[in-house]
Amino acid sequence: MEAKVYKEQVARFEEELKGFNSRYNLLGSIRLVIGLAIPILFYFFLTTYQNAYLIGCLVLLTAFLFLVRIHVNLKNQREIVRALIQINQNEIAFIENGTLSFTNGKEFIDPHHPYSYDLDLFGDRSIYQILNRTSTFIGSQKLAEYLLELKSIEEIQNRQKAVAELEDKLEFRQKIAAFGMARKDSQEIHNELIEWSRSEIVEIPKWLVYLSYILPVFTFVSLGFLIAGHHLPWGKITVISGVFNLALVMRQFKHVKGELLNTTKIDLILGNYSRIIEQIEAQNFESEKLKELQNKLKTDASLASQNIAKLSSIFGQLENIQNPVGAMLFNALIMYHVRTMSDLEKWKKHYISSIQSWLEVIGEMEALSSLSNFHYNNPSFCFPEINQQKQLEFEELGHPMIHEKVRVCNDLKYDQFKFIILTGSNMSGKSTFLRSLGVNMVLAQAGSSICAKSANVHPMQVLVSMRVTDNLNENESFFFAEVKRLKETMEKASNSLSFVLLDEILRGTNSNDKREGTIGVIKKLIQKDIYGAIATHDLKVCDITKDHPGILSNKNFEVEIQNEDLHFDYKLREGVCKNKSATFLMEKMEII
């Protein structure tokens, strides 16, 4: 895909950013003038006791607070536009230069997983990094789950439809990513929120809540008389009333601090969640999967986005207790934190059970959006048909990590056989082909489009042994590690329909032992309900195909020597390979 659309997006958002910057700077100047005027008017009031100055001071203070709110909103809007610019610049850099600015999912690397480590799903320049457009922790988790877990045929088909529908919703996809980028989410913050949601509800005594509305009335009445010039006894009454209010609030200080203990920056992250959910709520979806996610946000007459925004506001109010001067003033006047804790108690009772579900919606929407972005950037890729008849066929199958200008694609149809013995010289393309099969099977089963012109896939568990390492910590040799991996593959293949990929197994032993072992593995595998391929350099292994017609097939990648140089076309052929490259290459490099 060309980067034209993304460049147009950058130009549009940069123009918007100029407008926001102008308004932001203008409001900043007005705020500065008003901020300087307030203390001047208050000074005149203290020296003259003329109420006009006090009224003017209060009017300017109100205006100042109003402008602060507008200023904050402008700041947030600027951050979103900047994030949108960055999102589109990242896409341009990826399309034009192959630059990957996206999180690589290295935390999901697991050498013991049946296929993810062998297929390079996670880490630098991985499948995950190409796919990933998530900006929340739960989104990154869900995308990884999509790649790691096999779901039902119905779920896969529903995901395909959702991904296809989201393809044309570029603005929506980029907005939810931008809202997530506005405040950096993390596993720590996510876990804190979940832990808080499972904590007990702190109940504020009803009598104290009632007093929080009654007592401030007396405080403000006495303060009003004091301001009006009636100094005694209203000064003492105001002080006593304020101290009493503050004392009552301090009884709840431990509970307020307890709610804040594990919720650092939660209010900011919740603000992100609220804006993301608001975007989801506002969409008109057609696919069943997207409608299902949208319906999970409907808990009662109110909107989930509003409820999350309310929780964000409550946490922001609670955190004001960290400012001693402000907290003392507000609690002395209006018993601020008693009311806030009461609001939190009510919120928890109504919505605490929905938090996990709302976060799951955000995560799944980001995962689907990532797969949709992948298809948007690769319009030639196809959504495979999903079947239950054990059909596996691919037309022009390639590896999505290889640029389309140099990618060589191949056709493969498992109809007259179930398992391939793949031969070819070094560098001929065997391992890349195995990875192409594995990666596209995983993408197909995640609900994504795949690197093929067309495909028909029966979902099945994927089992791969292509990259085995020795384990010094467990005093484990390479050979033993490989045998252990093969044993795990055999056991898993015995449990359900499987797609097995093996690359040059038993490298840690001698030639005869390796050949006999490889033949033994193939014979045992084909007794199970499996499809797949094994790559080998031992041409003798290919002889067993004649004993298993309709099950085994020989295919190869050939190398040709043209003008004293090796030529690889990376095209899959029938039969056993004939040419070799190792000796020629070593002679050319004067090694032998």
What portion of the residues fall into strands of 2 or more residues?
A: 5-15%
Counting helices, strands and paired strands, the structural category is: alpha/beta
What is the fold-level CATH name, i.e. the topology of one domain?
A: Rossmann fold
The CATH superfamily of one domain appears as P-loop containing nucleotide triphosphate hydrolases
Physical arrangement of strands within the biggest beta sheet: 6-7-8-4-9-10
Secondary structure tally: strands: 10
| CATH domain class of one domain | Alpha Beta
**Strand/helix succession:** HHHHHHHHHHHHHHHHEEEEHEEHEHEEEH
Number of helices: 20
Query: Helicity, in percent?
Result: 55-70%
Largest sheet: 6 strands, mixed
Mean pLDDT: 86
> How many angstroms separate the termini?
46 Å
Tertiary shape: elongated
Cα Rg: 33 Å
Write the CATH architecture name of one domain. 3-Layer(aba) Sandwich
Uncertain residue segments: 470-475
Question: How is the secondary structure organized here?
Answer:
Blueprint lengths: L3 H45 L2 H47 L29 H5 L5 H12 L4 H14 L3 H13 L4 H11 L8 H22 L6 H17 L2 H8 L5 H17 L5 H8 L8 H15 L5 H11 L1 H16 L3 H23 L7 E2 L5 E6 L12 E5 L4 E6 L5 H17 L7 E4 L3 E5 L12 H18 L2 E6 L7 H15 L4 E6 L16 E11 L2 E10 L7 H7 L4
Parallel strand pairs: 1-5, 4-8, 4-9, 6-7, 7-8
Antiparallel strand pairs: 2-3, 2-5, 9-10
